[in-house]
């Protein structure tokens, strides 16, 4: 399984929070190579494999949805939008988008030429509710194609970069989805462990998929896989990992200390590059909700360093995605041997 191509395949479909159908279809297709797959009421993709009814039951999670926008109104031939996730409005002027109306409609955010703007305004950003998306269509053409509630995604330009790095939108968290699939491709047949894979929806708007998905799985332990901050100019070093230096093993008060220490031990034993990510409060990931599901589940967090989070040009190192997959596989296999 070629990890780079897997990442591009997973990032290709649109999947904004609440409209993950296309992304879910691709994720389910790939997961079905390894597990029996189903979709739940909310739209989560769930796969089950390993030893049926084994007492050790590990839940693996990565979210499928991406940040996006939602149409709030149509004004003439222009469209107004609101946030559906943590969109950085600084990146929006002149940004290309796709509106998922009756058919996909290309558009772009209006941008006032600097020649026509006041010098004092050139370093300011308009509030999102004052921005407009230009579709090139007239009001009459647009009214039957777009309506409030339609989702909007950023047009992305996936590309290979130097040093085995790639750029694309939606790598948060399709990179996590890829690492779980790659992990499954590395696994032998498990004798004493059952595994449930949860590709969850709506993480970017409140973790609804992880809340419901983990409650529906009676797991004995859980591992969330997401992206985290990679060092780039302007970012505080104490809050960032380093691109290309391996899996980020997370620890916070809500996460399991024994699982954290086991990940560290396995990374050293298996010669898997790693770095630690220590958080004093919550993690900002699905792990926060999985850990308190039902009566509580011991939970770990593995992250992939990523630059330019919540933009259409996110960057990851393919080797880091592979490092997560290898550590997960080692955790499952070694635990299966002891179970």
The multimeric state of the shown protein is single chain
The termini sit apart by 28 Å
Strand pairing plus helix content: what structural class?
A: alpha+beta
Shape field: globular
Strand neighbour order, sheet with most strands: 1-2-12-3-13-16-14-15
**DSSP E strands, number:** 17
Give the ordered list of helices and strands: HHEEEEEEEEHEEEHEHEEHEHEEH
The residue fraction in helices comes out at: 25-40%
Largest sheet, if any?
Answer: 8 strands, mixed
Low-pLDDT residue intervals, each spanning 5 or more residues: none
Compute the number of helices: 8
Radius of gyration: 21 Å
Overview of the molecule:
The protein is α+β, with helices and mostly antiparallel strands and 339 residues long. The protein starts with a helix and ends with a helix. Helix 4 (171-186) crosses helix 8. The protein is globular and about 70 Å long. The protein has helices spanning 3-11, 21-31, 139-143, 171-186, 208-215, 257-269, 287-290, 318-338, and strands spanning 36-39, 45-50, 56-63, 68-75, 78-84, 96-100, 104-109, 133-134, 151-154, 159-160, 165-168, 193-200, 221-229, 247-251, 274-278, 299-306, 314-317.
């Amino acid at each position: 399984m070629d990890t780079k191509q897997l990442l591009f395949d997973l990032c290709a479909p649109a999947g904004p929070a609440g409209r993950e159908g296309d992304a879910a279809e691709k994720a389910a297709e790939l997961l079905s190579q390894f597990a029996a797959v189903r979709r739940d009421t909310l739209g989560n993709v769930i796969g089950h494999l390993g030893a049926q009814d084994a007492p050790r039951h590990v839940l693996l999670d990565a979210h499928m949805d991406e940040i996006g926008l939602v149409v709030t109104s149509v004004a003439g031939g222009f469209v107004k939008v609101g946030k559906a996730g943590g969109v950085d409005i600084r990146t929006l002027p002149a940004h290309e988008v796709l509106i998922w109306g009756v058919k996909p409609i290309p558009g772009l955010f209006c941008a006032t030429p600097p020649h026509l703007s006041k010098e004092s305004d050139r370093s300011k950003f308009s509030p999102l509710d004052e921005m407009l998306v230009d579709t090139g269509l007239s009001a009459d053409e647009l009214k039957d194609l777009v309506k409030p509630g339609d989702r909007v995604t950023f047009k992305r330009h996936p590309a290979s970069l130097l040093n085995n790095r790639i750029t694309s939108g939606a790598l948060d968290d399709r990179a996590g989805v890829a690492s779980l699939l790659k992990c499954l491709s590395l696994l032998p047949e498990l004798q004493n462990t059952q595994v449930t894979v949860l590709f969850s929806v709506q993480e970017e708007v409140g973790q609804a998929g992880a809340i419901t998905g983990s409650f529906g799985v009676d797991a004995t332990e859980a591992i969330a896989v997401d992206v985290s901050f990679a060092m780039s100019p302007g970012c505080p070093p104490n809050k960032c990992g380093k691109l290309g230096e391996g899996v980020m093993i997370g620890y916070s008060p809500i996460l399991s200390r024994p699982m954290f220490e086991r990940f560290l031990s396995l990374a050293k034993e298996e010669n898997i590059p790693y770095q630690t990510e220590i958080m004093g409060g919550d993690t900002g990931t699905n792990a926060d909700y999985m850990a308190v599901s039902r009566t509580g589940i011991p939970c770990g967090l593995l992250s992939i360093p990523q630059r330019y989070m919540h933009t259409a040009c996110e960057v990851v190192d393919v080797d880091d995605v592979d490092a997560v997959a290898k550590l997960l596989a080692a955790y499952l296999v070694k635990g299966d041997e002891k179970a």
